[in-house]
Amino acid sequence: MCYSTMNIIRKLGIKTSLGIYRNFSVSSLNNANYSCKLLVVGGGSGGCTIAAKFARRLQKNAVIVLEPSKDHYYQPLFTLVGAGVTRVSDTCRLEESVLPTNAKWIRDAAECIDPEKGFVKTKEGHVINYEYIVIAVGLKNDYSKVPGLSEALQDRNSGVSTIFDAQYCENTWRDIQKFKGGDAIFTYPDTLIKCPGAPQKIVYLAESYFTKTNVRSKSNVMFNTCLPVIFGVKKYADALLKVVERKKINVNYKTVLKEVRHGKKEAVFFNTDDKTKETTMQYNMLHVAPPMKTPEFLNTSTSIVDQAGFLCVDKFTLQHTKYPNIYGIGDCTNTPNSKTAAAIAKQCYVLEQNLLSTMKKDNPKEKYDGYGACPLLTSYSTCILAEFVYDGVPRETLPFNQARESTIAFYMKKHLFPALYWNLMLKGYYHGPEFIRKIINPFAN
Ligand code: UQ1
Q1: By CB neighbour count within 10 A (0-12 exposed, 13-18 middle, 19+ buried), where does 116 fall?
Q2: pTM of whole model > 0.90?
Q3: Most buried among 289, 305, 365, 367, by the most CB within 10 A?
Q4: 3-state secondary structure of 422
Q5: Quick check: is 195 catalytic?
Q6: Is 374 a catalytic residue?
Q7: Catalytic entry in 195, 226, 312, 383
Q8: Is 46 a pocket residue for ligand 1 (Cβ < 6 Å)?
């Protein structure tokens, strides 16, 4: 079906296999012009949370959320989907059910922004004028950066998968079960990624499964990472190196996936110190953490992004460095924190307070400390719960050393965090565990 026919069907609200479209009005066949007090671009974790906060504070439909997807995923569970603990359907809810009813949802994607005039043009040609805008478009997988990767992911028998995609994360579980020995390679790319702990969590879980099913002795488990270290925060890196040693995982640092030749079951890697130094490795199973980039809307909006395509915001206030009516949250900004859902929980409070100040023509005062958390699953029942702020300084909540592998952290990851996310965070009522930390650990840093 051609693009324009599809468009007309969408605008008429005809029920298609893709779902029911809400706008059933002939006038909406014409490109519309909307205006709002606050435009939230993106309906993921950051966008939903901010929309919930401001929809409550402002009048009905003063907040517009621009989001093309009908589904909303809780991505932190994708690792457990890849490990066969839960299913992808358990991570998904309808976008409609997580957006605040007091906000207007436009199911369309941003095409470009005019930050001087204050409007966004959508892919379908609508114009949305805003007074304030929050950009929360996240990060996208950039499969095209690795030749052969897309084809390999689409081939059910390739042994190649990724937990970083709702479409493929169940394939990781299929491949882990199919693996009967040989080489299992796991990768980490040479771009910023969301959840930088996930590429190694899936190694630990796969290794545990191989041990349980008696294939471990016949297998070589390898983690090829672009980074020069196992983890960016020394306290947890020290603990993780012990896990790596115990599990006899071969870690190759500064090693980046360059090409997948899935017909031959070969992966080509280069070394970050000398890109001409290439190594070709055979695999029976290949788990790829793909390169990522910000969505095209953002990385082509050169007046508001840095060279790598991330929204330029102040790392403490989350306000845009040039346009005070623009704020950013989540994976798409250039703040140097770990890109995790826990970071967004903390950021949403800072952003809410600061945007309210900006709306009152005041200066933003609240500061984001770079808080991020990463529950590093080390087996099917244990987890190292890393929590830290800017500059890799640990900032732990629980009353024990969180670099220790613990069962309680595993169950928090599996049950508590998803419950907090769906029931509190997306409704704008959760700002991270700071309040618990103050109760449990009143004298900590
Ligand atoms: C957290 O608050 C959170 O948000 C819901 C997560 O979700 C992805 C987390 O993974 C973590 C680790 C936290 C931190 C919370 C506590 C209680 C330590």
Answers
A1: exposed
A2: yes
A3: 289
A4: helix
A5: yes
A6: yes
A7: 195
A8: no
Atom of ligand 1 nearest to the CA of 385: 12
**Separation between Cα atoms, residue 357 and residue 354, nearest integer Å:** 5
pLDDT of residue 26: 36
| Per-residue pLDDT tens over the stretch 333-377 | 999 999 999 999 999 999 999 999 999 999 999 999 999 999 999
With contact defined as beta carbons under 8 Å apart, do 195 and 185 qualify? no
Ligand 1 atom 1: residue of nearest CA: 342
Q: Report whether 288 contacts 187 (CB < 8 A).
A: yes
Does 432 sit in the ligand 1 pocket, CB within 6 Å? yes
Cα separations in angstroms, 308 against 245, 305, 349, 353: 35, 8, 26, 28
Q: Is 375 in the pocket of ligand 1 (CB under 6 A)?
A: yes
The pLDDT of residue 229 = 98
Give, in order, the Cα–Cα distances in Å from 320 to each of 50, 129, 166, 361. 16, 18, 31, 15
Ligand 1 atom closest to the CA of 417, numbered from 1: 5
CB of residue 317 inside a 6 A radius of ligand 1: no
User: Which atom of ligand 1 is least distant from the CA of 76?
Assistant: 8
Residue 195's closest CA among 24, 337, 68?
337
pLDDT at 401: 97
Strands (E), 136-239: 140-141, 160-161, 182-188, 219-225
Tokens linked to 178: 């199919």
What letter does residue 390 receive in the DSSP assignment? G
Taking each helix axis as running N to C, give the angle between helix 169-178 and helix 198-212, from 0 to 180 degrees, rounded to the nearest 10: 30
Q: pLDDT value at position 29?
A: 54
Sorted by sequence, the CB contacts under 8 Å of residue 291 that are 6+ apart come out as: 141, 142, 143, 145, 146, 189, 190, 191, 193
Type of residue found at 25: S
Amino acid 23: pLDDT: 38
| Predicted local distance difference test score (pLDDT) of residue 86 | 98
